[in-house]
């Protein structure tokens, strides 16, 4: 028998360990986590503008990354550049992204802009656009062409699979040990605007055929509010939602097959992002992008695309009630909560707290760079400040926060549009949160914008890490301690450095009297210990 060298065994062990440390989305006790290097990781992200992944634009992107204290950059990869000629692949832009991310010690989430980008095919290579007969767009019910690719065309799907597989194979060879890239988005806001589905004659025949068995399972039909059946056409099974559900199945199957082919080559976590519909009114699909993973068709996507790890909402809706509902709908036992895009406006920064408290895996405002406009550093810093202040506080403790979130130790309260008082149940304690002032020196003033929020991390029964802005908190005993006299044993203001709390000062007197401490517009971190007497 040939003797195997110790050096070879060492290399084999290293390779095995490297593969074992692949980024992964896991679920434990109904809660999810993104593991990076084997540990829970929360994406403090930011997404570059659509056309900023070119070398000439990247210096402004990295400047924004540094100013915002990101740990992860979301940035596109363009099919039109990767495969400008059929079966000839150019991954030079990917090489640039990998090299520069490593230089900046930043992780990457790469966005595969391919068959779909915002419902259109604009990132397909030119050679495909010139062959519109082979790679057609949707035909509307009125017989007019729509600026959106048909999801029912095998040739389009196969071309995308070929390119995406080549991309994932290259990532494995270029990054398979370092794991600079921790996740990949497959397509971008897939679906169609301007037509609920493809009504071309060939696709109409598909629509008139039988519903696939995967969609006839009783639990799935119940989730779609349809009565149980064992067979039928799309119209028979799904009634007035048949067109939309057919489109959702078609898009999900297409994207799911692309994802499956790529994951077979290199099993990174994969997700799909959603252009949202109004979550409160159940509108019909002619009012939003039809076929994408909107809240009402999540069960269809889960059945059609099992190799997609999660479905993720892009949040540009306004109003606290709508955004809370979106978070509710995408935070599911079978779906890790991740917000890959959110409007980069001050009022949206507070939703970071809600996502983290739900055990989410990441949060990423869209458009962090100046998009080639030559923005001054001071302008960039001012624009990013509402997010940078939060990231700057969270960054040195992000490992702890990710673990606490996964363990269910975090509660968050986000100020509503009415600035109304809210509460948080914390076991033996209840906290009341006032989003406005009461005239005392320790209270936050009234703010015109509902930007206030607070996060509680329960370290033990009576000890909490509390972070927040623009609010005032008051504790009171609850449960078995209800009605007992109590006081603050200690209120410490500080910050985290390298995962450890560092005291800045102890708060007392005016800073804690009259119920409890107040938080101003800049995020503050407190370690609070309570006691009953």
Mean pLDDT: 93
**Tally the helices: what do you get?**
15
Q: Shape, please?
A: globular
Structural class: alpha/beta
- Describe the main β-sheet briefly: 8 strands, parallel, barrel
The largest sheet has its strands arranged as 4-5-6-9-10-11-12-13
Which bin fits the share of residues in helices? 25-40%
Q: Can you count the beta strands?
A: 23
Strand content: 25-35%
Tell me the radius of gyration: 25 Å
Report how far apart the termini are: 75 Å
Low-confidence stretches: 1-20
Describe this structure in words.
- With 533 residues, this protein is an alpha/beta fold.
- The chain is built from 15 helices and 23 strands.
- The chain has helices spanning 6-20, 58-68, 79-82, 92-104, 126-129, 154-175, 201-207, 218-223, 234-238, 242-265, 298-304, 320-330, 351-357, 377-394, 398-406, and strands at residues 24-28, 31-36, 39-41, 43-47, 72-78, 107-117, 137-139, 145-149, 181-188, 270-275, 310-315, 338-342, 362-365, 410-414, 422-426, 429-434, 453-460, 463-469, 471-477, 486-497, 500-507, 518-519, 524-532.
- The strands form five sheets. Strands 4-5-6-9-10-11-12-13 form an eight-stranded parallel beta barrel, surrounded by five helices. A six-stranded antiparallel sheet has the order 14-17-18-23-20-21, with helices on one face.
- The chain is globular and about 75 Å long.
């Amino acid at each position: 028998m040939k003797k195997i060298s110790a050096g070879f065994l060492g290399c084999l062990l290293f390779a095995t360990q490297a593969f074992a440390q692949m980024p992964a989305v896991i679920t434990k006790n109904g809660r999810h986590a993104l593991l990076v290097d084997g540990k829970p990781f929360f994406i403090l992200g930011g997404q570059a503008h659509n056309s900023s992944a070119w070398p000439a634009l990247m210096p402004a992107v990295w400047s924004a990354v540094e100013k915002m204290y990101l740990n992860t950059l979301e940035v596109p990869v363009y099919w039109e550049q990767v495969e400008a000629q059929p079966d000839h692949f150019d991954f030079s832009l990917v090489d640039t992204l990998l090299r520069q991310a490593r230089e900046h010690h930043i992780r990457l989430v790469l966005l595969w802009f391919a068959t779909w980008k915002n419902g259109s095919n604009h990132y397909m290579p030119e050679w495909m656009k010139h062959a519109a007969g082979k790679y057609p767009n949707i035909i509307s019910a009125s017989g007019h062409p729509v600026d959106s690719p048909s999801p029912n065309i095998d040739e389009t799907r196969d071309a995308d699979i070929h390119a995406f597989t080549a991309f994932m194979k290259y990532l494995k060879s270029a990054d398979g040990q370092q794991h600079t890239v921790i996740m990949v988005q497959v397509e971008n806001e897939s679906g169609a605007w301007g037509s609920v589905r493809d009504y071309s004659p060939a696709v109409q025949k598909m629509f008139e055929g039988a519903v696939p068995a995967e969609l006839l399972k009783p639990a799935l039909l119940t989730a779609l509010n349809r009565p149980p059946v064992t067979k039928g056409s799309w119209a028979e099974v799904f009634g007035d939602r048949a067109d939309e559900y057919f489109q959702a199945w078609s898009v999900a199957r297409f994207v799911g097959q692309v994802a499956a082919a790529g994951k077979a080559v290199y099993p990174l976590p994969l997700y799909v992002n959603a252009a949202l519909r109004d979550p409160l009114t159940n509108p019909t699909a002619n009012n939003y992008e039809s076929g994408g993973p909107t809240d009402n068709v999540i069960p269809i996507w889960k059945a059609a695309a099992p190799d997609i790890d999660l479905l993720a909402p892009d949040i540009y809706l306004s109003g606290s009630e709508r955004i809370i509902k979106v978070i509710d709908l995408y935070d599911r036992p079978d779906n890790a909560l991740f917000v890959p895009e959110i409007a980069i406006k001050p009022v949206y920064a507070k939703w970071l707290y809600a996502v983290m408290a739900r055990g989410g895996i990441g949060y990423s405002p869209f458009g962090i760079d100046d998009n080639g406009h030559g923005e001054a550093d001071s302008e960039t810093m001012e624009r990013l400040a509402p997010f940078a202040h939060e990231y700057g506080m969270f960054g040195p403790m992000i490992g702890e926060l990710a673990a606490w979130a996964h363990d269910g130790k975090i509660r968050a309260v986000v100020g509503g549009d009415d600035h109304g008082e809210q509460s948080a149940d914390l076991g033996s304690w209840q906290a009341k949160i006032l989003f406005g002032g009461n005239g005392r020196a320790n209270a936050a003033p009234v703010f015109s914008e509902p930007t206030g929020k607070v996060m509680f991390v329960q370290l033990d029964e009576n000890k909490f890490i509390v972070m927040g802005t623009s609010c005032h908190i008051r504790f009171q005993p609850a449960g078995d301690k209800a009605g007992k006299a109590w006081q603050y044993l200690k209120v410490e203001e500080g910050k985290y450095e390298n995962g450890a709390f560092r005291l800045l000062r102890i708060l007392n007197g005016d800073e804690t009297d009259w119920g409890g401490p107040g938080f101003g517009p800049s995020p503050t971190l407190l370690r609070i210990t309570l006691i009953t007497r």
